[in-house]
Every structure is written in C-alpha cells, then in structure tokens.
Amino acid sequence: MTNHIVLFEPLMPANTGNIARTCAGTDTVLHLIKPLGFSVDDKHLKRAGLDYWKDVDLVYHENLPEFIDSVPDLNYLYLVSKFADHDYTDVDYTADDKDHYFLFGKETTGLPEPFMRQYPEKAIRIPQDDDHIRALNLSNSVAIVIYEALRQQAFPGLQRVHHYENDKLK
C-alpha cells in the first residue's frame, strides 16, 4: 500500500515545497496536476523543500482527467474539501493492498465544483470554524490528513522511537 498526495493546480510555491517535504518524510508519492502557478525551478519552491526534492517521488499530470485515469481503484480516492459532509477521521484508510489518493484543490478555489458533483461520496473535510477563516493552509491540511491515514496504518516504514544517551538524541 502506498499513500499519494495530489495537488490540483497548486499556486503557491511555498505550500508545494512544504508538502514535498512532508511527502519525503512520510514516503508518500506527490502528484502535481498542471497547470502549476509557478515554475518548478522557483526559488521559493526549492527553499521550502530545502534539500528534500531528491527524496520525493514526484508525478506530473497534464490535467485532472489524466490524473483520474491513472488511479487504479477510484474507491480509494478521497477529495479533500471544506464543502464535504464527512470528516477525514470517519474514513478507514487501512485497506492493506490498496493505494490511497488524497486530492486537494487549488489554494484559492479548491476543486472544481462540477468535478466535486461527480464524486460527492468521495469528499472528506477537516472540521474548521468557517466564521473566522475561509480555509486552512494547504500544507497544514495535507499534513493533517496524511498523518491520520498513517496513524491508522500504524505508520508503515516510519521510524517511531528515538533513544537518548547523555542528553543527546541518537
């Protein structure tokens, strides 16, 4: 089983860089659906991802339909949207033999409404106080969702224990 973070037409290089860093640290595949709102050579993108880009399994898609066609089992596609009815914690992400895909929308507009209407049963949300903010930061949202999936999966392949010796982390 592999987890996949998918960004639909991301606009902000710092968000994408932070997400790439999270993907590198969690062995999660990162998919970017074009058009991108920045160049992949953007200094802000590289600065946010620091030296982690070499450790990111990165896949580009020309458009949303191309990405959808690449997903082997749409039962394990999750659309992350503040307009969803189901919380991200209500889903079981433990299917052992299936890849899980978490699709996040553009920072300014989210996922296209016609697309969301096609797949309403796949939509999940992070609860938030809509009276005070429009939306959570994209990179924070990605971290919240991927770590819930990883928690349910018992953090496969991720180091969980650190030992201290003489007050130094080993």
TrEMBL record:
Domain tRNA/rRNA methyltransferase SpoU type stretches: 4-147
Assigned GO CC terms: cytoplasm
Protein's UniProt keywords contain Iron: no
Organism superkingdom: Bacteria
Pfam families (UniProt xref): SpoU_methylase
MF GO annotations: identical protein binding; RNA binding; S-adenosylmethionine-dependent methyltransferase activity; tRNA methyltransferase activity
Catalysed conversion reaction: cytidine(34) in tRNA + S-adenosyl-L-methionine = 2'-O-methylcytidine(34) in tRNA + S-adenosyl-L-homocysteine + H(+); 5-carboxymethylaminomethyluridine(34) in tRNA(Leu) + S-adenosyl-L-methionine = 5-carboxymethylaminomethyl-2'-O-methyluridine(34) in tRNA(Leu) + S-adenosyl-L-homocysteine + H(+)
Entry EC no(s): 2.1.1.207
Compartment(s) of residence: Cytoplasm
Keyword list, A-Z: Cytoplasm, Methyltransferase, S-adenosyl-L-methionine, Transferase, tRNA processing
InterPro entries: Alpha/beta_knot_MTases, SpoU_MeTrfase, TrmL, tRNA_m1G_MTases_N
Positions annotated to bind S-adenosyl-L-methionine: 80, 105, 126
Record GO biological process: wobble position ribose methylation
Family note: Belongs to the class IV-like SAM-binding methyltransferase superfamily. RNA methyltransferase TrmH family. TrmL subfamily.
Function: Could methylate the ribose at the nucleotide 34 wobble position in tRNA.
Record PANTHER family: TRNA (CYTIDINE(34)-2'-O)-METHYLTRANSFERASE
Protein known as: Putative tRNA (cytidine(34)-2'-O)-methyltransferase
Source organism per UniProt: Pediococcus damnosus
